[in-house]
Each structure stands twice: as structure tokens, then as C-alpha cells.
Amino acid sequence: MNVNRFARSVMAKSYNAESFLVHVAEVMERQLKEWNEEYEVLVMKLVDYEVVVKKENRSYELLLAEKTLLSLQQKSSYALDRYLWLELEKQGLQIVRGNGDYIESVMF
């Protein structure tokens, strides 16, 4: 999957935090589905935000405080993506590199 860095920069600056998180989750789901159609990404708001990645009967869950979300959004246009992917990788999610520039843009 390839990215449009200019468009992402505009989104990071103009979207509110929740809308930006939902956008990033949608992008992540598109990337995951390129690897395997069975992936699904859910975003829920309780006290904090919860991001859940599901595939068959396996799930990966991340909690994200609104303060952290805002900080990552302001840091750089891909800081939130990087944070989420690295946390998912720590939980055992296999990240496939080499297909398009999205993962390469996010992880490095």
C-alpha cells in the first residue's frame, strides 16, 4: 500500500483527534487486509480510546489516552501509526515489509 504524505500532513493538522484516529485505523485496516482479508480493526471510546485488531479468533488490543493521541497527532503525521504498529508488533502481530511504502514510511 502506498501513501500520500501531503494529504496525511493536512489531515493531521486539520482533523480533530478522534477523526484522525478513525482515519489511521481505516488505513491500518486496509494495509492488514492486503496481507489477509480476515483482519478487522475496531475503534471504541470509553474512558480512553481502545483500538482492537481482530483476525479469526485472535485479537490485539491497545488503550490510548486522549492526551497521548493528541500528542502523537501533533508530533508528526505518522507518529500515531508508528505507535500503534509498534504496540501491535510487541503483542505478536506480524508486520510484512516490502509491499508499498506505507509500512516503510511509518516504521522508519
3D structure, described in words:
53% of the residues lie in helices and 19% in strands. With 108 residues, it is of the alpha+beta class. A three-stranded antiparallel β-sheet has the order 1-2-3. Helix 2 (17-35) packs across helix 3. The protein starts with a helix and ends with a helix.
Task: Lay out the secondary structure.
Blueprint: H1 5-14, H2 17-35, E1 39-45, E2 49-55, E3 58-64, H3 66-75, H4 79-90, H5 102-107
Antiparallel strand pairs: 1-2, 2-3
Helix pairs in contact: 2-3
N- to C-terminal distance: 16 Å
Q: Return Rg in Å.
A: 13 Å
Mean pLDDT: 90
The largest pleated sheet is described as: 3 strands, antiparallel
Order of helices and strands: HHEEEHHH
- Specify the overall morphology: globular
> Helicity, in percent?
40-55%
Strand proportion = 15-25%
Secondary structure class reads alpha+beta
**Low-confidence regions:** none
Strand order of the largest sheet: 1-2-3
Number of separate helices: 5
Number of strands: 3
